[in-house]
What does this fold into?
Amino acid sequence: MALQALALRNAGGSGLAVSLPATASGAVSVSLSRVLVDGNGEQGVRIEDPGASNAGIAVAIHNSTISNNGFSVSDADGVFVGESGAGSVHVALNGSQLTGNGADGVEIDESGDGSIVFTATGSIFEGNGSQDPGDLEDGMDFDEAGEGDLVVELKNVSIRENSQQGIDADEAEGGEVNFRIVNSEGADHPEEGLSIREEGDGDTVIDFIASVFSGNGIPADDDGEPQQTVDCEEADDGDLVVHVVNSDFTNTGDDGLKVDELDGGNLSVDIKNAHFDANADRGVDLTEEGEGNLEANLVNVSISDNGKDGLRSRENDGGDLAVDVTNASINGNTNDAVEIQQNDAGDGLVVLTQVQIAGNGDDTPDVSGADLIEK
It folds into this structure.
């Protein structure tokens, strides 16, 4: 199905609804180019596989606007794609706007054996998720519940002022998670700008390149709980790898960057040319809870004016810890400039090279269970 230069407006149900028969196979393709989907009572675009067919789903949305849909019922997204069979879901957006929809800007659910592959370039996800005050929604929501992978690539994308999170991503089984975020922003959400959770044995790799996450995790009212601007969690035996280059994580209601590996995998964090400033809690908070190792390298970073510690890193089980910080400014944090703990069996080494530390609650690096070298 290919739609071009159309307007799908003001329907009582969905603007466009496609339901695959249980006998479908191969790849079912839906393409929208220069299409306006606006003011429909339910989903703007709904594509689903209720019969768990063997077919895959491929969706391409180019230079289109999907806005103001989903205010007649709860949980009606701008774009919803649901796949429950063996096939995978591929969704590509280019030059499009998903704004002001009642639930998520885009939601993709894959509950079978297939994978989710999502790419967005030059697109905007803004102001979605306000229809149900008891269940506010996100700019993007990914749920991969089977054995497949979750692969997301964002380039030149703006994710702003959605009613809950900017991006909410969950992978519940053995598949891997790969996120690559380039020249993009996630800003001004009452919860996380980005939340990623991998609950199975697969590995998680997250790349931030020339991107900004700011003003997230600040509740809209006093009843809310502050959240991190970026929260990455690997809850089982897979490894968790985070790369940050030329990116900023600032002005959030909790930690700037929070990364947790909670079971047997390794945690590896590599940060270059980044700012983690003016967050209400810690600038950077890294935790490895299982048998794996924790390795962190930070070069040319600013971690300043945060409400608790500047940098906290903890290895809480039998693995080794290695933290190397070079050419950094860690100033004006309320509590410790640096708190690093090796709390169980395993070796620990902390190297601070040309690190400026001043004006913190405690300027002396708080290092326990590990050797400290300052150059």
About this structure: The mean pLDDT is 94. The radius of gyration is 22 Å. DSSP finds no helices and 35 strands in the chain.
